[in-house]
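Hello,

Our lab assistant flagged a job as stuck in the queue for most of the afternoon. It eventually completed. Since we weren't sure the result was trustworthy after the delay, we are filing this so someone can double-check. Below is the sequence as submitted and the structure that was eventually returned. Let us know if re-running is recommended.
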Amino acid sequence: MDPRLHHALVTLSLPALLVALRLGSRFLPDRPPRPWIRFRRGWSRLARRPLLTAALLCALPLSACLYKAILSGPPMAHIHDEFSYLLAGETFASGRMTNPAHPMWVHFESFHIIHVPTYMSMYPPLQGLVLALGLLMGHAWIGVVLSSLLAVLLLWWAARQWLPPRWALLAGLFGTLLFTGTYWSLSYWGGAANAAAGALVAGSAGVLRKRFSGVHLFLYVLGVVLCANSRPYEGSILCASFSLWLLWLAFVNRGLVTPAHLRATIPSLLLVCAGISLTLVYFKAVTGNPFRMPYQEAARQYFAHPALLVGTKPAPPSYRHDLLRNFYAKTNRASPKPLTRLYYNFRSLQAFYLGDALFMLFPLAVFVLRRTGSRAPILAALLGAAAMIPIPNFLPHYFSIFAACFLVACCQSLRDLAALSIGGRPGGWIIVTSCFALVVSGFAAVPDPVRRLGSHPTSEWARQRAAVEQRLLASPGEDLVFVRYGPDHVDHFEWVYNHAGIDASPIVWARSMDAVNDAALRRYFATRRAWIVEADATPPLLTPYPESSANGPLK
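-- returned structure --
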């Protein structure tokens, strides 16, 4: 069967079920079966026991992480972004905001990292701080696991502020699926910290809509600060949506605002000032300009296309390596067929968030907007989905800040369907049972590679690089490795990544440029053994650097 046809049939399975129930309403029983009634009662009792619920929600993703650790150890970084985030984690764990530019930085240029004016990741700092926490506890992945468990709990807590407990429990269960056996918890790429930040905003707003609370206002502001330092583009949309809505509520209920309320806002105002100040200090340390993000500096230096489709084409960057030129010429480039790009963006969103069939609960939430008190998160999630349209190449963690709002929208939609009466007969229990069956079958089926517990198929090169690294570390002394690629090299199989302190690293990875520049780098690292690795050979070939080239002239 054609993949697109199969995708369409699976996508429409839930609407098809609704149509089938309507057409066959006279065959429906007069009441739900007893097993369903007993299950619903047990589910409701569980939802009223928060500590037990929290433990059960964390058990599934934690078990997946432990299984991964026992099976093959911590995840091995193999995506450009992961190395960039790990650089930030090492930098923060060492107590620095950034690293000084290396005098020989041209040899160390790599993807999604800036080397001037300082040497640092181009990404916002939140994920780097999470990895730094893990490094201080023994391994960067510990930070990923802890942030994943925190995100699961916050997603469930946020849903409780907008939904009855039993439906919030379902949202929490859906939330665990985002972290169980997926790259959000089994890589260094991010997702968990972003989702946790968005859940703080959505959950705190849910409390503030019912009553003023200085604590929850503080949590709301904390969520806003974290969103600004994780996914600024998506975070600005989420925070603006809820902030405008809360301001409108405050205006409508202005008679309820008292001097005591105003005094309670002081800690939140101090947090705003501290968050803005620290962010500007970080920007100043990395880029030299407090109003210029590292991402903007990286875009100026490397991006051949705007980050969003609505931007203007930047001036052509000056590249020093053909590999970087070829990669960034393709990065963020708009598809020649916009509808094709939109289809694959939607497909990526749909496949990760609950799967092809259950994802349809999200757009169906449009029909319950007039009958629910959860309008704010549903509208925020819809705005977030619309914000993905101008992104040339969408990845699921881009939407993670809206995860709490998305889950509330889906469960609110299913809650409405559960109360459905067809021809005077209850039919909602069939829909809910079918959704549970889809959850179980989807989780039990062989997952997509991006959700796989093991390594991604494209990570073989990372294992080869690690093998070369272990071979060098097994002998005493420090090493300098010049990396060379073949004519058919794949951009994503990148070997040139270094630690935050390059000069102090036991192994320094460098791009082999030409005899003159390589000789200059060899003289800089005169005490190190020099090697050449042919990275695209099968297997990769490591040989000593020819001594006859060691004393070439400086360029």
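-- support follow-up --
The delay was a queue issue, not a problem with the job. The result is valid. Residues 446-455, 549-555 have pLDDT under 50 and may be disordered. Residues 50-72 form the longest helix (23 residues).
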